[in-house]
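Collaborator request, handled under Task 6.
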Amino acid sequence: MSKALDGVRVLDMTHVQSGPSATQILAWLGADVVKLEAPSGDITRRQLRDLPDADSLYFTMLNSNKRSITLNTKSEEGKRIFLDLVRRSDVLVENFAPGALDRMGFTWEVLRGANPRLVYASIKGFGPGAYADFKAYEVIAQAMGGSMSTTGFDSGPPLATGAQIGDSGTGMHTVAGILAALYQRTSTGRGQRVEVAMQDAVLNLCRVKLRDQQRLAHGALKEYPNSEFGDEVPRSGNASGGGQPGWAVRTAPGGPNDYVYVIIQPQGWAHLAELAGRPELAEDPEWATPEARLDKLDKAFGIIEEWSARLPKWEVLGKLTERGIPCGPILSTKEIIEDPTLRANGIVTDVEHPERGGYTTVGLPIRLSDSAADVARSPLLGEHNADVYGAELGLSDEEIAHLASNGVI
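Structure tokens returned to the collaborator:
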């Protein structure tokens, strides 16, 4: 079966997470992603290792379906080869520090001159201006994009999310930009720059909090559980922050993830009251309507939890779903990795690796009816040097050996 991005060549100069998460999506969609690494390799090959002398899970889980070549782009021979690779590529993706490629002599003008059809995508921590030269990490992007100030409980400190919205969230935005640029190229014949900042991507994912910041000008946010409001959106614990109130209620036996998240829809309140052994609350004017419950949502969820805390998580889930109540169990990472439904759907899958043996990874979260994704292992460092430099660039075995002995590849 053909793939959606068959025929698209991506030159992947990214490292760590934000860039590799983007290029991995492109690889799953069928692009030929050639990961260009320094001869020492992407730093994440060695970071957080659980097995000695094997690529780390950090690397393998972000670099599936790619080919790996090594190249010292600071050497004169390396620069010449790099431009040859650019000429053969549709997309170049990098997430170096601001200006790094420019200082190597590879400005947008130089790259566009070598290949006018090139889509050149850059991921940076911040956009132009006062923050441009700040060093960016996942949680710094969360801190400066509006996530941390609105995550946590009102009485506690700001918290980072477990979801990597700064790194992988930016990667997803970058994929959208690259695909848009490739599509526009079909009509213009020209490539273009694609620039995505981590702070901007996090902010885009936090837009509802900016919505609520503006709503504060007209009074308290009634769907929030907070008792007091200042002039900033507060941290609101597990509240949904949307039109329908939600909360995580405890279940038996009371472990760290023995919770079910429950949404109270207007039509669901009578069922919840019945389950909780308080059917009279469905008719009580102090409880019967969403407006009546707004100032005592903590008590409403407390009533539900008095019932749920006596039952196992999956039994609670079953009773709620039988009645059409929106809910979901809090799944631990262990439960997710063992979940038969997620495995059947291919979003959790096992891959064989020549150094590691088998490992579990996350598959493509996008399903295309005519382009099924196959999740393959990550490449070994420089595994495809001979293929790319020999078969594709036309270098002889002697020339490749010369480049290797001189530290160019």
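The cover message to the collaborator said: "The chain has a mean pLDDT of 96. The two ends are 34 Å apart (CA to CA). Please let us know whether this matches your experimental observations."
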